[in-house]
Amino acid sequence: MELGDALTITGLGMAVVFSGLLLTAGLIVALGRLQRFLDDSPPEATDPAAATEPQTASGPVVDAEILTVITTVLEIERRLHRVRARDARGTADE
């Protein structure tokens, strides 16, 4: 095989790969537009007043004592993690 043949095969291979990539990208764009076209519901109008209101999670109301216990446990875990990290740094320096 000569150099010209090798370069021709290489060029054709690259052309096939890039054309396949372009076709794949075009298919993705077309399917996205098709999905928007087939979607029957119009986009929801955004109310500027509703957007400024804080969003709260809906669910059962948690008792204040339970929240205190959860907060205390999380704070203890955070402090223990900091102590363990400081001890790990201290032993690594020695």
Account of the 3D structure:
The chain has 94 residues and is mostly helical. Helices cover 76% and strands 0% of the residues. The protein is flat. The chain folds into 2 domains: 1-39; 63-94. The protein has helices at residues 3-38, 48-52, 64-93. The longest helix has 36 residues, at 3-38.
Low-confidence stretches: none
How many structural domains in the coordinates? 2
Overall geometric form: flat
Approximate strand percentage: under 5%
> How many strand segments?
0
Q: N-to-C SSE series?
A: HHH
Q: What's the total helix number? A: 3
Oligomer: single chain
Radius of gyration: 30 Å
Question: Helical percent range?
Answer: over 70%
User: What structural class should be given to the helix and strand makeup?
Assistant: mainly alpha
Q: Report the sheet with the most strands, covering strand number, pairing sense and barrel closure.
A: none
The overall average pLDDT, rounded, is 83
Q: In whole angstroms, how far apart are the ends?
A: 65 Å
